[in-house]
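Appendix C. Worked example: Tat pathway signal sequence
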Amino acid sequence: MASPEYQLLNAKPDAKDDRGSSSYKQWFRFLRTDLYLIVIHTILLTLSVALLLSIRRNIPDQVKDDLCNQTLSLEGEHASQLNFPGLPGYHPGRYIVQRFSNDPHSLYRGPPSNETDKAWDRIVKVGPFNITMNASGSNQTPDNPQPQMANLAVFHQLHCLKTLWQYTYFDYYKSRNEIFTKSETEIHKHLDHCVDYLRQALMCQTDMSIIPLHSVEGHDLSVPSYDVPRTCRDFEGARAWVLEHEVDLEED
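Step 2, the predicted output written as structure tokens:
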């Protein structure tokens, strides 16, 4: 019996297999061009970001502070405000990292003592110093080329805080603080000024530091943890600058 003969059937062309067609070649060239463009744009974007970060790191901090303290646009009747850009010769943007202390034996806590008074006086009795309109860059001083006395707000804030603390030991300080020798009305007028001034200062600064809360055995409510790292302005640096430029009020 003769062996059957097999013949290959003519395969039907696959409609999807058009890699040899001109349309597929055009599509592939278009895709390859787009891919090149994406890679090039990605490289350029990466270089631009790196360049911006490098420039930011190398801009002097004083320039950054000046830029941050330019005229601010505000809503309302008064449309602008010019902030004090910092002390001449002192870097106002110098920061340090420190932790707050809740030490019950802090020198700034009672009961009153000579050591406590010295600690408060060290951070309160600072200044004033001479400053001019051009040096301060502020619109808060008169248009007068002659130097005028000024001081940093932090020292008045500390003065207010010290006065409030001393009032809690009124019997001890009533003969040691001139404010407490005045009438009860005058005393409370000064204390009310201090409270409201400190309120405005705290709200102005709006400290954004996080205070974690944790449970402690024996406490119904969560206890705040104040001992966390904070970024603070260099108070000692500012104090040293003011002391260096301090005006001697006792000079004739």
